Description:
Structural class: mainly alpha
Number of helices: 7
Distance between the termini: 13 Å
Strand content: under 5%
Shape: elongated
Largest sheet: none
Amino acid sequence: MILGTFLGWSIVMPAYWLCGLLAVGLAIIDVHVRRLPYAITGVMYASCAVAFGVSAAGSGDARPLVRAVLAAALASMGFLVLALAFPGQLGLGDVVLVGWVAFSLGWFGWRVAVVGLLAGLIIQAAVGILVRVRAGPRRALPMGPALLIGWLVGVLVAAW
């Protein structure tokens, strides 16, 4: 809704609305079971991919689509390296979600993708510090909610 208000309606807006709804469910699932279901993240990827593809074909400008794919690939590879380097600290569901966050925000630009990812990481770090102070170092934290809030920050940045 926010994007539609500031950017006007486009073919990608329904994908962002759907992803926003799914993100709420995904965050709740991650908090409760510490898992990010690939099926839900896959729907988010697919809805954005279809919308981006249709928009790029309709406008004749594939640059935003290429940028989104590159952002997703770079973020996914970076987080996969981290997940493999620090087993048990970052799950593969988080890696897949980071790729989607970068993909969906990369459509708007590199700055938006970086801001959204950094916002999610900063939120996760702040929550981690607070939990560590209160509950001690052994408390496992889901990363999905922080990444999804970072996505929302990126969407808001794109809208302004």
